[in-house]
């Protein structure tokens, strides 16, 4: 072989190696490419995706994310590697959505309510005393997102994998029982914003916001008298029951959650890997949600049954009526911004009724 031809072949090989090493995925890296750019029809490239989650690995969220990620990795024949950082190790819960939108991470799981003012329409899922079952509300919320246009604009900045909810939240009381709606007046408590804070304000409580990681310590130190908006899964995984002398089982609300992907991270994937992400989104992802939140609720309630109590029917009726007042105020507020508040509320109630068969018996 002539010398010039050998040099030319070596140059081509070096250029190919340099091209391979320069390909990266947002927040992760791409390895062993077969020559296709992201968004192409197919590729043998391996993509590493970084996931932010505020919840601990041993809780319902951690188990859901691990199972979902394993299924996606298997479906991709190992070309997708999904690294989950549990417990807010990459950043606080208040930054989870911003981190994924900016590209600091590829995927994030978190609460819309932690990003103040960003998701006023998604707050429909957190309206007081409308839903109490995690699986029912999860199907209802995803159906609402997928089959209507009410929520789509709020989530246009990311690629949505799933919107779902946790189970209902009890009221954790540090020292004394709250026997009636009137007893909430003057109660200092942790509420996470939106409709639940509106409810607390109308009831005369003194609401404060705090990250889930801070609740235990603040209850222990007496910074707050109570904590709300902590689903039974949170009560269990963060051991909040240890700081609650009494637990009011009042089904205040469920909390909407998101599992979303950075748009650039999604668009850089070849089409066949995009299809796998899409296949394991929505109702397929809900299969991995399953009854995890319901199961934890049942076991946590059983373990703490001596602390749990409920209100009389008449007091719960008063709370329901106050919840309806919150809903009407919410409808007026979102309608004033140009959205169809009443239509969205009706659609939410309709979806909850549609999935009543999902309620744990």
Structure commentary:
The structure is a single chain. The chain has 361 residues and is an alpha/beta fold. Helices cover 42% and strands 14% of the residues. The protein has 13 helices and 12 strands. The chain has helices spanning 3-22, 60-75, 96-102, 134-147, 195-203, 212-220, 232-237, 263-267, 271-279, 283-289, 292-303, 313-336, 341-354; strands at residues 30-31, 46-53, 80-85, 107-110, 159-165, 171-173, 188-190, 206-208, 226-227, 246-248, 256-261, 308-309. Strands 1, 2, 3, 4, 5 and 11 form a 6-stranded mixed beta sheet that branches. It has a 6-stranded mixed beta sheet with strand order 8-7-9-6-10-12, covered by helices on one side. Helix 5 (195-203) packs across helix 12 (313-336) and helix 12 packs across helix 13. The radius of gyration is 23 Å and the shape is globular. The model is unreliable at 1-27 and 32-36 (pLDDT under 50).
Structural class: alpha/beta
Q: Which whole number gives the mean pLDDT?
A: 89
CA distance, first residue to last residue: 78 Å
**Rg from Cα:** 23 Å
Total DSSP helices:
13
Unreliable stretches covering 5 or more consecutive residues: 1-27, 32-36
Quaternary structure type: single chain
Largest β sheet strand count, sense and barrel closure: 6 strands, mixed
Net shape = globular
Question: Helix amount, in percent?
Answer: 40-55%
- What proportion strand? 5-15%
Summarize it.
The chain has 361 residues and is α/β, with parallel strands linked by helices. Helix content is 42%, strand content 14%.
């Amino acid at each position: 072989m002539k010398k010039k031809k050998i040099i030319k072949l070596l140059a081509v090989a070096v250029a190919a190696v340099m091209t391979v090493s320069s390909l990266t995925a947002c927040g992760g890296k791409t390895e062993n490419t077969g020559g296709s750019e992201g968004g192409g029809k197919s590729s043998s490239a391996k993509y590493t995706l970084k996931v932010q989650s505020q919840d601990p690995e041993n809780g319902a969220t951690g188990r859901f994310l691990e199972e979902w990620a394993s299924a996606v990795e298997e479906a991709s024949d190992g070309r997708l590697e999904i690294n989950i950082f549990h417990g807010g190790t990459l950043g606080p819960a208040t930054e989870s959505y911003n981190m994924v939108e900016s590209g600091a991470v590829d995927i994030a799981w978190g609460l819309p309510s932690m990003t103040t003012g960003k998701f006023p329409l998604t707050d429909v899922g957190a309206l007081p005393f409308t839903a109490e079952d995690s699986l029912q509300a999860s199907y209802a919320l995803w159906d609402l997102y997928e089959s209507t246009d009410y929520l789509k604009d709020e989530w246009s900045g990311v690629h949505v994998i799933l919107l779902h909810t946790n189970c209902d939240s009890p009221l954790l009381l540090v020292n004394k029982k709250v026997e009636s709606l009137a007893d909430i007046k003057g109660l200092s408590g942790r509420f996470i914003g939106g409709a639940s804070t509106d409810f607390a304000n109308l009831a005369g409580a003194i609401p404060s916001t705090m990250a889930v990681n801070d609740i235990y310590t603040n209850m222990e130190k007496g910074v707050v008298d109570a904590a709300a908006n902590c689903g039974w899964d949170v009560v269990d995984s963060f051991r909040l029951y240890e700081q609650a002398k009494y637990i009011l089982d009042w089904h205040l609300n469920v909390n909407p959650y998101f599992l979303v992907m950075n748009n650039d991270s999604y668009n850089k994937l070849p089409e066949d890997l995009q299809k796998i992400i899409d296949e394991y989104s929505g109702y397929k992802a809900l299969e991995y949600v399953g009854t995890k939140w319901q199961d934890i609720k049942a076991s946590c309630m059983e373990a703490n049954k001596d602390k749990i109590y409920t209100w009389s029917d008449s007091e719960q009726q008063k709370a329901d009526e106050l919840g309806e007042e919150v809903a009407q105020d919410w409808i007026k507020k979102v309608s004033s911004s140009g959205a169809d508040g009443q239509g969205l509320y009706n659609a939410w109630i309709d979806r909850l009724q549609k999935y009543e068969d999902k309620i744990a018996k």
